[in-house]
Structures are given as structure tokens and as C-alpha cells.
User: Which sequence fits this backbone?
């Protein structure tokens, strides 16, 4: 099975949003914009640390799950700069989101760290295309990927992604990503630092919550 290729801690540490100790303000307008971008290939959330990228996407993910839309999540770390390991982690993330059966049918021998990233990405794209619903893949902290990992894994995934796959990249920087072609095709839904700043009402709600906790 696919899951047999992975250490038992991987799902808990890499395939779920990390907990953030901040006030959970509902970002209704940003959630609306993310929903509106689902028909495009990519959502790009670019902002410095502390602007709530992961918290926003975690809230949005929960809303999608409530609508029975599969959401795969991968927290990027330095190990993902190995293309085969990166592709392997993507496979496990998508398998954990409900695609295990289709992935296993297409590659019954299972994946190992020696399986080429090209093979894994090809299987994942085929498995996703067989789904009857939209599939969302969130990659958090993409700034940790080096050019080799981007070129070997992320670029082909974006280039050949089926129509029912929506990829979300959350990152502090985006200059290392090759997104010009997608932008020219109007396939990128982008949120930036200015978008993630609290509105006046959100700021008031945030400080109100702080005061309530002190009482």
C-alpha cells in the first residue's frame, strides 16, 4: 500500500495545517475570494510572516471539507528539496485526502523513495483527473523549495494539472516560481500582503477578543 512507504509521523506533521496561536478572526471576504478562484488553476498567497496566511487557508480548508471537497495539505520543509521525496510527500498528502484507492490502482506496486518524481507526478495527475469533484492541494511555506524542486516537481504539476485540480501556494516570496504563463492565461488568483491586512472591523473584532480573554 502507499501508506506503507511512509513513517508513521508524516501524516501528523506534514499533512495537516499547523496550529497557530492567534485569534481566529473569520476572514469572510478573503474566503469568498479564494472560493471565487477555484475555477482557476492556482491561488497564490504571498505575504511576509505574521500576516496569517496559514490561518486563513486553514479556515478556508475547513469550509471546503464541509462541502465534501477533498483538500490535500502539505507543509513544506527542507527535506522537500529532494524531488523524489517531495513527490512522495505529495502522493501521501493526496492519498490522505481520499485519493488512495485511485492512486493505488494506477500504481499497485506502491511508491518508494527510489520511485522517480516524474512517475509519481504522472500517476497523481491521472488519479486526480478521475475524480468527479474538485480537488484542492495546499502547499504551505513554498519559499523553502529550491529551484531544483520547483523545476522537477512543482512546474510539471502546474503545467499538466487537470481541470478539476486547484493548487494553492502559500509563500513569503514568489520570485523563484515560474508562473508567468499561468498569469498570462488568467489562471492565477493572487492574494498579497495588502489583501491580508485586517480591515477596520476585523481589527476591532481582534482586539475585542483580546479584551474578552482578559476578563
Assistant:
Amino acid at each position: 500500500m502507499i501508506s506503507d512507504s511512509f513513517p508513521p509521523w508524516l501524516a501528523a506533521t506534514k499533512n495537516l495545517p499547523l496550529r497557530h496561536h492567534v485569534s481566529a478572526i473569520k476572514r469572510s471576504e478573503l474566503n469568498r475570494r479564494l472560493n471565487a478562484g477555484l475555477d482557476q488553476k492556482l491561488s497564490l498567497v504571498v505575504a511576509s510572516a505574521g500576516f496569517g496566511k496559514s490561518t486563513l487557508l486553514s479556515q478556508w480548508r475547513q469550509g471546503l471539507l464541509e462541502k465534501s471537497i477533498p483538500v490535500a495539505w502539505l507543509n513544506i520543509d527542507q527535506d522537500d528539496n529532494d524531488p523524489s521525496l517531495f513527490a512522495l510527500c505529495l502522493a501521501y498528502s493526496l492519498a490522505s485526502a481520499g485519493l488512495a484507492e485511485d492512486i493505488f490502482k494506477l500504481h499497485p506496486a506502491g511508491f518508494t523513495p527510489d520511485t522517480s518524481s516524474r512517475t509519481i507526478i504522472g500517476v497523481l495527475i491521472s488519479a486526480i483527473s478521475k475524480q468527479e469533484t474538485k480537488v484542492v492541494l495546499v502547499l504551505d511555506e513554498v519559499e523553502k523549495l529550491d529551484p531544483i524542486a520547483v523545476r522537477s516537481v512543482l512546474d510539471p504539476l502546474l503545467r499538466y494539472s487537470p481541470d478539476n485540480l486547484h493548487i494553492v501556494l502559500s509563500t513569503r516570496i514568489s520570485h523563484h516560481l515560474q508562473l508567468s504563463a499561468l498569469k498570462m492565461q488568467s489562471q492565477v488568483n493572487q492574494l498579497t500582503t495588502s489583501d491580508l491586512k485586517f480591515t477596520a472591523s476585523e481589527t476591532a473584532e481582534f482586539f475585542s477578543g483580546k479584551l474578552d480573554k482578559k476578563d
